[in-house]
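Model: You mentioned two targets. I'll fold them one after the other.
Researcher: Yes, keep them separate.
Model: Target one:
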Amino acid sequence: MKKSEKIEKFLSELETEIDVLNCVDCDNVESYDDVYNQINENQGFDIEIIYYYRAMEYLMENDNSLQESLELASEMGFDCESLSSETLASILASQNVRIEFDSLESEITDFFDNLEDDFECEVCGEEYETEEEAENCCKDE
């Protein structure tokens, strides 16, 4: 299995709300930071909660005092006139999904630390540790 295939399989099995494979180019990641940055660049952490009822429900479940969501909104430069329940819920949900993803850092880092390429013989499909071994496998057949 090629390195990019192993990465794709691993990322597809992560327990997260983020559609990681839609945000990440598996051929161009080598670390947790690469994965995180590609998700961020592709707005994978941006959660949009629409409709008043859904927003209020989310806020009641996750920040019923509104303290955390108002603090986040303030840090992001929002003023009171531009805030709505949907904006606050979306800001909080985006922050929560980042925190959730951050909790996967050690799992993702361990995966990349132990990742190695396997090379497959094109004739029989046998896997080898080096490309040369794979190429020489069925060379004489």
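Model: Target two:
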Amino acid sequence: MIHDHPRLRPRFSRRHWYIWLALAACPLLTGRAEETASPTPPAAEAEPTATVDPVAEQLKPLLTEFSKLFDARRFEEASEVLDKAEAIAPDHEVVVSARAGIYAESGKLDEARAIYKKLLEKSPDAFVPKYNLAELLLLDHQFDQGREAYEKLLKEFPNSDLIRYKILLTHLAQKNLKDALPWLDQLRQPTPTPFMLYGSAAIALYNADLLTGRRIILSAEQLFGPGRQKLLHDSLAEIGLVIRGDYPPALPSTPPAPDSTPEETDGTTQLTPLSTP
């Protein structure tokens, strides 16, 4: 997970493997569990005592394979693996969520929406289905409605920088830089976070400052571990600021600048140094 920032570093026992696989079925929550599970106490980490679910253990290798294929956007193969999981436990929540993810990425948004609504009926307080219902609006280019859904979700999860980051991107998708900048201010922290850096990169890329945007993305990769911000990078791709397959990003022709974030001044992007953790 994300390193070196306690607010973004949950702890999980082995019994939480299914959370990661459920998130792999979501349009953008691939491999990210920050918003969905409570931290596990250290004692539970060391000596998990939960009873083993035999169905879950049977599903585990299939859903792990599904997660890898889904993350690689090999949806036809992922669907074939999911067929096998559905034959074992068609009503299992993780399996159902995975099918919704396949529908969403295949453009079958109504089918995906119906599944997420059913999941929400079963778990009215769950973050993931609410997040993905908002995400489906963005995938359908309903940016005003998606932003409204995210703002409503932010009231329930006020500490979620993921939601703030997504709201910032909805404004950029509508070419509304003025309203995006205050959301970047909300992402700023005394020390860098993935959301702050990717929000800064989004502003730079929006201003066509491609080198600065890539440098900031690379700073995030260096600070928090390579390949761990794919969720945030894919969100940039959803609004056309980067190419989805360009992750992790290649090094630019010049070395990355020190940890930095763009500051908006008269329509141009300038670099402002950030303190390191």
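Researcher: Noted. Anything on target two?
Model: Strands lie at 260-265, 268-273.
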